[in-house]
């Protein structure tokens, strides 16, 4: 219900600014950032971008977060320069340690190993935009941007009309991970029967020695 209300409020405010330009934003590879950094930090990052975008929208545009790490903005005129300024201000690269902590249990014995790798953690936003002539075109344009705003170049506004000639560019926030997959601390096998897991953690049984395995991102 909250998402519907936010979209409805945005459409009502945006209609007063048309004809104009519609922009869609999302934090690139946000799910992976959430896994590595946690909800508290990523919630603060969402708030930070929202504040930057709201400041850039004034006085002739309106911006609204419509759910998760996604925003829309409508401007009376082309706002690419202002948008690029927001993306540049939000962009960040910091030293980071990627890899996994692997805990194993076999009978009464427990072992823990880690595979740390010094790398870089990056923060970036994708932005897709299109012209909208009237209120009747707004909802279809919003749907088109939401559907297409993935694997785009980061840190710059991209026109929806250019997607047919632009290559998709998969991007991840972590520059590197260890070259080899996690291994069992007891026997070194990388063959597991998975019981549960997601992008942040996995639990399973080693197929070689039967050890219970728990794998977590290094925090």
Characterization of this structure:
- With 219 residues, the protein is an alpha+beta fold.
- It has a domain of 138 residues: Alpha-Beta Plaits (2-Layer Sandwich).
- It has five helices and twelve strands.
- The strands form three sheets. It has a five-stranded mixed sheet, with helices on both faces. The chain has a five-stranded antiparallel sheet with strand order 6-5-12-11-10, with no helix packed on it. The protein has a two-stranded antiparallel ribbon with strand order 4-7.
- Helix 3 runs antiparallel to helix 4.
- The longest helix has 19 residues.
- The radius of gyration is 22 Å and the shape is elongated.
- It starts with a helix and ends with a strand.
- The model has no long low-confidence stretch (mean pLDDT 94).
């Amino acid at each position: 219900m909250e998402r519907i209300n936010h979209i409805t409020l945005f459409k009502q405010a945006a209609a007063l600014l048309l004809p104009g330009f519609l922009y869609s934003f999302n934090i690139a590879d946000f799910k992976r950032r959430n896994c590595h950094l946690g909800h508290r930090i990523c919630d603060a990052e969402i708030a930070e971008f929202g504040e930057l975008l709201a400041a850039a929208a004034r006085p002739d545009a309106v911006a609204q977060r419509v759910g998760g790490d996604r925003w829309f903005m409508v401007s009376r005129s082309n706002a690419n320069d202002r948008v690029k300024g927001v993306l540049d201000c939000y962009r960040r690269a910091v030293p980071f340690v990627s890899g996994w902590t692997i805990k194993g249990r076999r009978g009464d014995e427990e072992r823990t190993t880690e595979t740390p790798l010094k790398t870089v953690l990056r923060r970036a936003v994708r932005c897709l935009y299109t012209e909208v002539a009237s209120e009747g075109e707004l909802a279809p344009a919003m749907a088109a941007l939401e559907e297409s705003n993935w694997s785009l170049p980061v840190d710059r506004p991209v026109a929806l009309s250019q997607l047919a000639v632009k290559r998709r560019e998969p991007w991840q926030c972590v520059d590197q991970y260890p070259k080899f997959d996690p291994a069992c601390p007891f026997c070194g096998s990388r063959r597991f029967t998975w019981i549960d897991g997601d992008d942040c953690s996995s639990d399973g049984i080693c197929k070689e020695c039967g050890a219970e395995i728990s794998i977590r991102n290094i925090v």
